[in-house]
Design brief:
The chain is α+β, with helices and mostly antiparallel strands. The protein is built from 3 helices and 6 strands. The two termini are 15 Å apart.
Length: 136
């Protein structure tokens, strides 16, 4: 199935529901989706916390990676990430994390994206940059 900017959000959610680690294990959900842009979020629960009480880096990365997957696969050939770098900027202080992914540059076979993760209080928690490969 090729997803487009005209694809209803519910159909996009249904398609990405098969990303079971993100959706079922972590509780990630899609709130916006269009070409080169996506917003995903999760409610922070005890399962997301590390031994020191902060949100685990893996939970933050999963949310960012889920936003990336949505953004890079709408109006594009099937796309996968090949390189990701994440910087953890601050501890989450709120009760929800929101990841916003936007395209920086789209080429024929490579795409470059930035994902910013904030909590619901506006705290900038992390920034991920990614290089993605598109199948022809």
């Amino acid at each position: 199935m090729r997803l487009t900017s005209e694809t209803p959000l519910e159909t996009i959610r249904d398609f990405f529901a098969d990303d079971l680690f993100a959706t079922e294990a972590c509780g990630c959900r899609i709130t916006e989706a269009s070409h080169g842009h996506a917003v995903t979020e999760l409610d922070i629960s005890p399962i997301h916390r590390n031994a020191m009480g902060g949100v685990m880096g893996g939970a933050i990365f999963t949310l960012a990676d889920y936003a990336l997957a949505v953004a890079c696969n709408i109006d594009e050939n099937p796309t996968v990430s090949v390189s990701n770098t994440i910087e953890f900027l601050s501890s989450a202080r709120g009760s929800r994390l929101i990841a916003t992914c936007d395209i920086d540059k789209s080429g024929r076979s490579l795409g470059f994206y930035t994902v910013d993760v904030r909590d619901d209080l506006g705290t900038h928690v992390a920034r991920m940059t990614a290089t993605c490969f598109r199948r022809a």
